[in-house]
Amino acid sequence: MQFKLVFVSAALATLAVATPAPRNEPASSCTTGAIQCCNTVESADSASAATIISSLGIVLQDVNALVGLTCSPITVIGASGGSCSAQAVCCEDNSFGGLISIGCVPVTL
Question: For residue 81, what pLDDT is reported?
Fold first, then answer.
């Protein structure tokens, strides 16, 4: 019994270390358009994102892609009005009027 507990604990610790965490990129590395400030950033297969994606008829190749929900563009970085109190991201597709941005990567302002 103790062996199972040790084995499971070791397996979980290994998984936690091996799971990659999204890394913030510098804002200057965004080449797909304006940096977005999104209220939430989550996986496309999350319940809230999946609901919006299906209601808009969007077909995604990668259901594990990060999407931003309720986003607005940040146009000037480093000046007043260029801040984000939520999550700043660089996204591949910002064409849904701020409702959802697809293929996002967190950035540091």
Answer: 53
- Residues 73-91: tens digit of each pLDDT: 987 655 445 678 899 999 9
Distance CA 14, CA 32 (A): 35
Q: Which stretches does DSSP call E strand in 1-99? A: 25-26, 35-43, 66-74, 87-93
How far apart CA 60 and CA 81 sit, in angstroms, is 32
* 22 neighbors 105 (Cβ within 8 angstroms): yes
Region of 38 on the Ramachandran plot (φ > 0 left; ψ -120 to 50 alpha; else beta): beta
Model confidence over 18-42: pLDDT tens digits?
Answer: 333 445 677 777 887 788 999 999 9
